[in-house]
Design brief:
Length: 281
């Protein structure tokens, strides 16, 4: 397994692989890998000749009051997990090379970035879109794999790939969960034992709404109320949002007539956790 930090070296590696007719799969991550990431890695491995995983905690997608500095990191463990996952290259660029002082370009997907996490994290999706475009240009993949756990992020990336004509196939992978339903996330490590128990309420709320939907309920307010009741039973949980949106536009819907997504963000202790389920017949 190669570990590459330099952007020029990464580009040269991918260019050579392409010249040799090899297919490149790419899995972008911020490290502190868990079973969700490993699922993406396994899928990438099965799709291509060369598998590149990036580990980069992207400073420009964090707001000034967010957790960039304390975001969990464990380089040695990540390297071991990548090795055993059959990764060919870990690309871990330096922030100084990604964002030199002269850097000023922004990639923005304004409509899809507006709702949901875009409300409480202004600038977040612009930071994500910008880094993903940069990482694509560094790693030159044929296919890139993302988690549906970050539903809005995936929608933003699919949109920008279409809009900017990137010749890259984007694949979304269903959310990998702990035994009690909690979506795996590097941020789960912020939770104390008690908070960890409360955190199970997020997926319980989503699954309850999904069950009501399957039983015929189409009023978004009723589903949101049912979900909120389950989460607010936890004293240490504070809801940022629980919304039901059209799956294509991510605009709020009142009555579910088309496939929709119920998405939520909840703060438990110091961890802001997100999750979602798709509501469709
Ligand atoms: P992150 O390191 O949190 O930026 O995530 C890197 C990639 O892994 C993103 O595409 C995420 O959507 C995906 N991912 C994170 N958690 C999960 C999960 N529990 N199940 C599936 N994919 C995930």
């Amino acid at each position: 397994m190669n570990i590459i930090q330099s952007i020029a070296e990464m580009q040269a590696f991918s260019e050579t692989a392409r010249m040799q007719g090899k297919k490149i799969a790419f899995v972008p991550t911020m490290g502190f890998l868990h079973a969700g990431h490993l699922f993406l890695i396994r899928h990438g491995r099965s799709l291509a000749d060369v598998l590149v995983v990036s580990i980069f905690v992207n400073p420009i997608q964090f707001g000034p009051a967010e957790d960039f500095n304390r975001y969990p990191r464990d380089w040695d463990r990540d390297v071991q997990l990548c090795k055993s996952g059959g990764v060919d290259v870990i690309f871990s660029p330096k922030a100084e090379e990604m964002y030199p002082e002269s850097f000023q370009t922004e990639v923005s997907v304004p409509l899809l970035s507006k709702n949901l996490c875009g409300i409480s994290r202004p600038g977040h999706f612009q930071g994500v879109a910008t880094v993903v475009v940069k990482l694509f240009n560094c790693t030159k993949p044929h296919v890139a794999i993302f988690g549906e756990k970050d539903f809005q992020q995936l929608a933003v990336i699919k949109r920008l790939v279409q809009d900017l004509n990137f010749d890259i196939q984007i694949i979304g992978i269903p959310t990998i969960r702990e035994a009690d339903g909690l979506a795996m996330s590097s941020r789960n490590t912020y939770l104390t034992e008690q908070e960890r128990r409360s955190a199970a309420s997020l997926s319980q709320a989503l699954f309850k709404a999904q069950e009501l939907f399957q039983n015929g309920e189409r009023d978004a307010r009723v589903l949101i109320q049912a979900a909120e009741t389950i989460i607010t039973r936890q004293k240490n949980a504070s809801v940022d949002y629980i919304k039901i949106c059209d799956i294509q536009t991510l605009q709020d819907v009142n009555t579910i007539a088309q496939p929709a997504v119920m998405a939520l963000a909840v703060k438990i202790g110091t961890a802001r956790l997100i999750d979602n389920v798709v509501l469709k017949e």
